[in-house]
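Moderator note: this is an archived Q&A kept for reference. The question asked for a predicted structure of one protein chain; the sequence and the answer are reproduced below.
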Amino acid sequence: MIRLRSLTEDLVKYFRITSAAREEIDHRLTLITISNPVVCLMEAGNFGEESPELAKARQDGADDSVLRELALKWLPSDWKQRMRLYPVIYPRRRFLPWNLVKIDGITFFLPFSLRRRVKNGLLDVADEGLKLENADGEVVLPKSL
């Protein structure tokens, strides 16, 4: 008879978690009241401030084409949005069980497409978020770091 290992057993050490990253995740976990939480590492952009001209046009109810023109004028021509990695907490029932791994007592959503890339890697803090590195120290997530 084949026995499937439970989720609580670490089959493979996908990545290590630094104490600073662990504190960030633990802080997020204390803010919610989900019975079976799963940590999902999500990339999100930070757009920063908008120009005063754009803010006034938005407040005055300007047309979308005007807002788009003002936004493009405000951004530098070589602008590329900088992504950040954040721990987002969801209930376990939202995920298929084979996409979940338990690392240092925390259940993570870790799809197969990411597992090989981060094996023996490191989850650490970065500017305004987290970063996930592979075994060679190259940043895998967020993609723009």
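Archived answer notes: The longest strand covers residues 37-45.
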